[in-house]
Structures are given as structure tokens and as C-alpha cells.
Amino acid sequence: MAKEAKLWGGRFEEGVTDAVERFTESISFDKALYKQDIMGSRAHASMLAKQGLMSVSDRDSIIDGLDQIEKQIERGEFVWRTDREDVHMNIEATLTDLVGEPAKKLHTARSRNDQVSTDFRLWCRDAIDTTVSHIKQLQVALVRLAKKNIGVIVPGFKQLPKAEPVLLQHHLLAYVDQLELDARRLLDCRVRLNFCPLGACALAGTGLPIDRFMTSEALGFTAPMRNSMDAVSDRDFILELLSGNAILGLHLSWLGEEWGLWASEESGFNMEAACGKSARLVGDLVTLQVLCKGLPLTYNRDLQEDKEPVFDSVKTIIGMLKMSADYAKNITYNQDKIEKDLSSGHIDPNSLVGRDIVLEGLDQIEKQIESGEFAKDLQTASSKNGQVSTDFHLWCCDATDTIVSHIKHLQVALVRLARKNTGMIVPGYTHLQRAQPVLLQHHILAYVEQLERDAERLLDCRVRLNVMRNSMEAVVTDLAFTLEFLSANSITAIHLSRLGEEWVLWASEEFAFITPSDSVSTGSSIMPQKKNPDPMELVRGKSARVVGDLIKLQLAHNRGIQVDKEPVADSVKTIIGMLEVSAEFAQNITYNQDRIQKSLPAGHLDATTLADYLVHKAIPFRTSHDIVGRAVALCVYKGCQLRDLSLDELRSINPVFDDGVYDYLGVENSIKKFSSYGSTGSECVAAQLDFWSSKLDVDN
Ligand SMILES: N/C(=N\CCC[C@H](N)C(=O)O)N[C@@H](CC(=O)O)C(=O)O
Known about the structure:
Strand content: under 5%
Helix content: 55-70%
Structural class: mainly alpha
Bound molecules: argininosuccinate
Number of strands: 8
Family: Belongs to the lyase 1 family. Argininosuccinate lyase subfamily.
Largest sheet: 2 strands, antiparallel
InterPro entries: Arg_succ_lyase_C (IPR029419), Argininosuccinate_lyase (IPR009049), Fumarase/histidase_N (IPR024083), Fumarate_lyase_CS (IPR020557), Fumarate_lyase_fam (IPR000362), Fumarate_lyase_N (IPR022761), L-Aspartase-like (IPR008948)
GO cellular component, one term: cytosol
Radius of gyration: 28 Å
Strand order of the largest sheet: 1-2
Distance between the termini: 66 Å
Oligomer: single chain
Pfam family, one: Lyase_1
Low-confidence stretches: 353-357, 380-387
Domain Fumarate lyase N-terminal: 10-272, 370-468
């Protein structure tokens, strides 16, 4: 097949080499997102038409074309092309082949950066719903298994030696409770991920009059994301989903381990495979943690690597849940063998009060699981019984509160830093290349958003810490809690490592965008001139340690619970130190306005605004992109900026240009245009700043 021009045409003279094409493609795996991509495009086209950015007939052609593409894909007739790189460009380019000109308008006020994040959130939301429904099926299977085994007493094991007699029903219900908390963990992640990035565009938002609330609602999101830079950077939802799956996988591996040990000879199931697969889930989580650590804001191509670990994790966990439910439905407890066994090991079955009493209410529990009431009951049980007051639980509750208060302290320091720098424009980067101008305040507030999710995550985790209904579960829940707690710390640490990366970079002579004061800098023992941003390098470095603490605990899960204390204490101490020093840094850096100002002309930051100008002139976005690409190529040739091109030069590229174009050129003009919700224009940012100042009570 002949190579076609890439969608970014304009300023490029040659195509990529075959090796680069093979290495950078993602179509081989991200085609799994086709449904979500098409849903997003339908919603986007409908919104563009409602806002007058395309005609109703263009919208209808687009939606018709998308319907045809969806059918072709589902019939296996769609031709996926590696030279079209990914699912987004494959679908858009095929749509153009199918319906022509109208398709060129679909990418108006959208980039692949907000598109991929929207698609993947939709995919993960479905994945969570499917996983939770499989969790319920397993819970129901376990309750039914419990109902089949009235009065059976089994030895309760603590590590391996037998400890006390327990009703088998009690034993099985411990797993049902664990699974309930696993489901809640995933559902909390669902709440946090259900915000819509679409319309955040590449990073700065847009000046085109889009309605982000309309697309958000059409796609079933709670609201559009508040800060466009955060919208295209954020992958917390993936880290959280993978960590939820890893904890759930751990529980299933315990169940598998137990059934493997207790297995009857005639069983044809392979629960060992379920145990082994839990290691994959930990591996998938670690991949994402390594991927995200130290990434600068906003979109970086590294993020393309987030898909396969998530696909693997979700497929694995669903397989494990199904296998466990099948097992539960087909298992028989051999009462004779168990009774004989009870007579050894110095445990007295008669000491079990109520040996003949059936655990009441199993029918009710089954119904509650199916209706979702079970979780509420779990909540009530916790408040009725009071908090579980083991020392470690109380210590962890305190630690959570302390970390949350340090998060707030850093948020306040960042909001104050933003307030000190009203009106300052900085380059916004994607792929660490200059992309669009943004207000520094907007940029800083992206970190405040991340930290807010961090605090919420910790508080959700704290709620689970207080839930304990079943005594057998109580002794193992510590571990699930600590894993969740350390996962939450790891996500915060990854955020801080991103902030650290940025400040270290910006403090370098090459950037010189910030000057840290002496009070937060260190020197060199040999080079007298040096002033190093060590504290933030260490923040970046220590994030690895917080992730390491989590891994230690994940690996230690079979060795008894005692091993959790040291990694937890280390994680808490490290994260508090990181938060503290980041807040100090925020209070002791100066943004170098002159240096930043001088750097702004480089990189054609106003190019997207110019493309939007052409959209206002009714030129389809894809054509506008190409025209601006050619204007940029001319600037590169002449060594000038877009605003230095004369009207004649611009008209030589396309006659549509008029004098009004100069209102769109230059970073100051460009910034003023970014006025849609969540964008970097001054009114949008002022609204964000007011929101945070009042939420964090910054004036007091
Ligand atoms: N290359 C890029 N985004 C690719 C996102 C899709 C990618 N296949 C992925 O899965 O992450 N970003 C461009 C914007 C764009 O291509 O829309 C940029 O920021 O310069």
C-alpha cells in the first residue's frame, strides 16, 4: 500500500522510517478502544454542531460514517493500518475516506491527548463495572457454598498450624467481606476517574466556543475536568485501578492457595494458576508506576505504554474471578475427613459456641449482595461496633490524617505561589516540546488537582480501615488496608516526583525559569559556583522508595502480617518528608519573569490559535492545521515568528487571511483566546484560583 501523507502534513517534508513507524505504532493494541473512540467522536460531533462549529448535515455525515466504521470493525472488515499509527487516526482517516470534507471538521477543538484519555477512562469505567459484577457473582457463589455447609466446623488456621475451630460458613464469609472491600476500592476509583478530559485539547484548552458540559454528560461523566493540563496528564485512574486489581488478585490467590491445599482429588480445576496469575497483576502495577515516575507535565508519548498492562490486568483479574466462582460452585467439603482432622492439633470443636446454630441470614446476605445493600450493612456494622482499635489500625489512621494535612499544606503553598504570579505566561509542553502558551497559575493548579485526588484516595482508604465485620477477615484486612494505603502513597509520591522533575529542570541554567533561594539549595564540595536543587532531586528519588515499600509488602504477603510494619513506617515517614520539602520549595522559589518572557517567542506557541482563527473562517480543522503547518515551515525557513509574516506571505499560503489574523498571533493574544471551560485564559484561571482559594481557605 502506498504511503499516504500523515495527518500532521503541513510542516513536514519527509515521512518516518519504517523502524520508527513500527516502534511508535499503537494500533496493534489500542484498537481495543474503538468503541470508546467512536462514542467520543459521536458526542464531540453533536456538540460541535450544536455550538455552530459544524453544520447539522456535516454532523449527520460524520455520525453515519462512524456507524459504518463501527459495523466494519465488528464484522472484521475494517483495515487497520500501521501507517495511521493508532486507533484515533485510523478511525478519523477512514472516516475521511468514507465521507470526505465533513470528516476534516471532526478534530476541531480536540487533540489526541484529550481523546486518548477520554477513550481510556470510558474503557476502564466499563472494565470496573464488569469486574465488580464478577466480584458479586463470586460472593454469591461463596454464600451459596456456605448455605450448603450448615454446621460444618473447620480448623481455623493462623499461618499454617491449626488455631481455633470455626464454622465453615464464618470462614467463607470472611472472603465475602474481603471481596466487598475490593469492590468498594474499585468503585471509589470509578468515582474519581469519571471526569471528562474531552475539550482540554492538547493541553491549554481552546478558544473555540465548545460546550464541555454537553460532551461530558453525553458520555456519562460526572463533569468536565477543571484544569486542561491536568486533564491530559492524569493517569491516576490507571494506577488506582491496577492497584485495586493487585489487591483483589492477592485475595483470590489466598482463596486459591487454600483451595489448592484443601483440594479434593476429583477436582479438575487448577487454582494454582489463579495464585500464579496474581503475580502478573503486581507486575502490571509496577510497570505503570515506573512509567509515570518523574514524567514532566502534560502528555508524553511514554503514556502510550499504559494500555497493555491495563488490558492484561483486567483480563487476568476477570479470569481469576470466573475461575474462583466456578470452583465455588463445584466444590464439596468432605465433612468426614474434616471432622477427623479436627481431633488433632489441640483444638476443641465443642468450644465453638453455637455449633448447631446455623449462621442466620445467609439468604438475606445473598439478596443484599445482589442489591448492593451488603456494602451499606458493612458500613453500619463498623459504626455500630466502633472502630477496630488495634494499635496498628490506630497508628495508620493517624498517619493518614497527618499525610492528608501535609497534602493540604502543600496545596496551600502552591495556591499562594500561583497567586504571587498573576498574569505570568509560560510555555506549555507536550512531549517536553514547546506546545502552547499557558498562564503559570494554570500550570501550578494542575498539581493542586493531582494532590486533591491524592487526599481523597487516602480518605477513602481510611474509611475501609474502619470496617471490620468478620473476625477472620479482621486478621487479614490489615494487609489489604496497608497495601491500599501504600498504593495511595505511591501515587502521591509519583505526583511529587513529577513536580520534582519539573522544578529541577526549570532551575537548570538551560531553562533558568526558577531560582530557588539558598535556604532550599545545597552546594558542591568541589565546584564553588554550583547551587543544586537537591531537595527536589531527592523528592524525585525518594518516590522510588515509596513504591519500593509497596512492593516489599506485596512480595511479603505470604509471610505473615508482622512484616508490614517496617515498609508502612518507612512509606509514611518518606512521603511526609517529601510533602514537607516540596511545600518549603514552593515557598522559596522565584519565577524569573524576564527569562521566561524572553523565551516565549520560540516554538510557535500561537500556532494552534492560528488554526482556530481559520476554523472561525469556516475552514475545516484538518485543512487549517495543514495551512498553519505551511506557515510554520515558512517561519522556520525565514527564522521568524508567525506574527512576523506579512499578510501577503500568509495570503500566498491561503487567500482567506485578513488583517484580523494579527489579533490571534503572539503569546499574549493567543492566551486571551483560550476561553472555554478549563482552559488557560485569564478568566478561566481566575475562576479556578477562586475555587481553590476558598476550598483550601487560603486567606486564613
Ligand atoms: N502524539 C500525541 N498524542 C498521541 C496520543 C495517542 C497515543 N497513541 C497514546 O496512546 O498515547 N500528542 C500530540 C498531539 C496530537 O497528536 O493530537 C502532541 O501533544 O504534540
